[in-house]
Design brief:
Helix content: over 70%
Strand content: under 5%
Shape: rod-shaped
Number of domains: 2
Order of helices and strands: HHHHHHH
Largest sheet: none
Number of strands: 0
Structural class: mainly alpha
Length: about 400
């Protein structure tokens, strides 16, 4: 549940950030500059973008701090609710057990008191009976001494009373033994109840310690989550700062390019407005065209010379390879030399060069001609473009 709430909060914050980032700014009234497709690449970043980025960063920071606080409060409340519910359940169970034990203890105590009272009454009866018996014995001895031998006349009432008393004494002895057994049983129950009470106290202490440890672990987890969120925010902050720096560098470069293009446009306008400069430029363009024609002719001559040299080199390589292959009987085996072998020698010679070495050095005149042709080919498109643009502007001004 906690992870789901975290993911929902992060999604909402991300959506708010991207909506604020992609929201277009209101156009300023002071901007009257029209942006075309050609110079759209060189448009600089507006100074308000930096402020907008800073505002978004501050908003993100405050939103993240508020999210962390809300998460902490939610987690604390949730843990408190869960733990209070568990504590209340444990308390209710302990209260029920304590009430049950109290009831059993009170019942056992009352029963023990009753048994004690009965035992006391029985002891008093036994004492009275013993006193009566001892009295009867003393009286019997006296009677024996003072008794004259006469025919005894048995007293049936006394006999019946003595027998009844003997029976009662035996019954009372049995009752005393039973009560003693019950007293021992209740004592054992009392000891068991005290042991259970001690165990319940130990369980309560253990649960309280576990609760304290659980609350500490939850606090540590919340702290770790807070630290992770702070580190992620710092990483994002560094990335955004780097992007801002790159945008600023691009802005500076684009402003430099725009300034250079503006200077070039100014120079072109000055050249087009002044007829003297225009005339000089047209003359230069004519000279460039003549040079291009000459360079094309020189390039054709260079190609022909190179082709002839390459053919000569291939023939020489074929001859040298045939000589190296057939050194003893060249004349005898020359008729057996096939066209395929000649082509193979030619391909090897063209890849390695004459005699496996580098090609011969070009003359300085040919090097100059080649350099001119390269320069003409590289500047050809630019010169043509400049010539066409000049002619176009000149025609528009004449009209």
């Amino acid at each position: 549940m906690i992870t789901n709430s975290l993911s929902d909060d992060s999604k909402s914050s991300d959506d708010e950030f991207w909506t604020s980032f992609e929201k277009p700014e209101a156009p300023k009234k002071s901007q009257q500059k029209i942006i075309t497709k050609e110079n759209l690449k060189f448009v600089s970043l507006r100074p308000t973008e930096k402020e907008r980025y800073e505002k978004t960063i501050t908003n993100i920071r405050f939103s993240k701090e508020e999210e962390i606080r809300n998460l902490k409060i939610k987690i604390e409340n949730k843990t408190k609710k869960e733990l209070f519910d568990s504590i209340n359940e444990v308390k209710l169970s302990f209260q029920k057990e304590a009430l049950r034990l109290q009831d059993t203890y009170a019942d056992s105590r009352q029963s023990l008191q009753k048994k004690d009272n009965e035992i006391i009454s029985l002891i008093s009866l036994i004492g009275e009976q013993g006193y009566l018996i001892s009295k009867m014995r003393v009286a019997y001895r006296r009677m024996k001494k003072n008794y004259r031998p006469q025919q005894p006349q048995p007293d049936e009432e006394l006999k019946s009373q003595v027998q009844a008393l003997k029976i009662q004494v035996g019954a009372y002895k049995l009752l005393c033994e039973q009560y003693r057994d019950e007293v021992d049983k209740y004592k054992n129950q009392n000891s068991k109840l005290t042991e259970e009470n001690i165990e319940l106290k130990n369980q309560y202490e253990k649960i309280s310690n576990d609760f304290a440890n659980f609350s500490n672990e939850q606090c540590e987890k919340a702290k770790k989550e807070k630290e992770d969120a702070i580190t992620e925010f710092n990483k994002y902050k560094l990335q955004v700062s780097k992007e801002v720096e790159v945008r600023e560098l691009l802005n500076i470069r684009q402003t430099q390019i725009i300034s250079t293009l503006q200077d070039e446009l100014k120079n072109a306008k000055i050249i087009l407005n002044s007829p003297r400069m225009r005339y000089k430029l047209l003359e230069r363009l004519k000279d460039v065209e003549e040079k291009e024609v000459k360079d094309t002719k020189d390039a054709k001559e260079i190609k022909e010379i190179n082709e002839s040299k390459n053919s000569e080199r291939s023939m020489m390589k074929a001859k040298t390879n045939s000589v190296t292959k057939y050194p003893q009987s060249f004349k005898a085996r020359s008729s057996n030399y096939s066209y395929k072998e000649y082509k193979a020698f030619e391909s090897e010679s063209s890849s390695k060069g004459l005699f496996g070495l580098r090609p011969s050095s070009i003359t300085p005149r040919l090097e100059r001609i080649q350099n001119r042709s390269k320069a003409a080919s590289s500047n050809d498109s630019r010169q043509k473009f400049s010539k066409k643009s000049v002619l176009f502007y000149s025609n528009t001004e004449e009209f």
